[in-house]
Design a protein that fits this description.
Largest sheet: none
Mean pLDDT: 81
Radius of gyration: 27 Å
Low-confidence stretches: none
Number of helices: 2
Distance between the termini: 59 Å
Order of helices and strands: HH
Number of strands: 0
């Protein structure tokens, strides 16, 4: 059978597999605690200055 040949049995097997519902998982969402920090970077004006500098090259 070539790679592009239609395999009806395989199609039906995949259809059954994707239509089944897996209910064996924990329905509760985990709660995470901690903190988040981020670097906002340069100000908008500094970024525009950098853009103009690069654009002029």
């Amino acid at each position: 059978m070539s790679m592009s040949a239609y395999d009806e049995d395989e199609h039906e097997r995949r259809e059954r597999k994707t239509s089944a519902v897996d209910a064996d998982f924990d329905a509760e969402r985990p709660e995470y605690s901690g903190s988040l920090t981020y670097d906002s970077g340069d100000s908008a004006e500094a970024l525009l200055d950098k853009f103009r500098e690069v654009k002029e090259r």
